[in-house]
What we know:
The chain has about 170 residues and is of the alpha+beta class.
Amino acid sequence: MATERTRQGKEAEMSSRPHARERMARRYRRAVARYDRTPEGRYERGGFGYPEGYRGGYADRPGYWARRGELYPPEPEGSGWPSPLHHVSRVAEERHLRAYRDRDLARSVDAALYQVLGPEAEGIATYANDAVITLEGTVSHAEVAREALEIAWRMPGVYRVRNALRWPRRERAR
């Protein structure tokens, strides 16, 4: 048995533990061997699978329900939306068009704010959701916030305006 002298002069037994890299290599080899022994099939213990397989949207995707090692033919190339490759329901298309209208509405309100308020509009964020405009941010005066709300109301297509603007409160002089 190997021994070495310590600072105190006592003999201490040398440890025969493997180096940290050797321990990690052994752990890696065991994990690979365990992975190779797993049966092909639904082994979705990643956190969102079920013992009988996937549910919902995941059950529709071949990448999830196909057994491990099974090859499935590649889908045809192309990414133009909409195209013959992608079937889009009326509901999904209407939601898509609503999102485009909201985006355009928010951009037009933002442009109008910049035209009228100038650099003061830098602190105002404009959001749109189903023609409801939300103005959020910090402005210098309450008058600027009031004017920003009036500008948003004047835009065609706006159904409602929500005010989330803040400004510094001034203390009253006594």
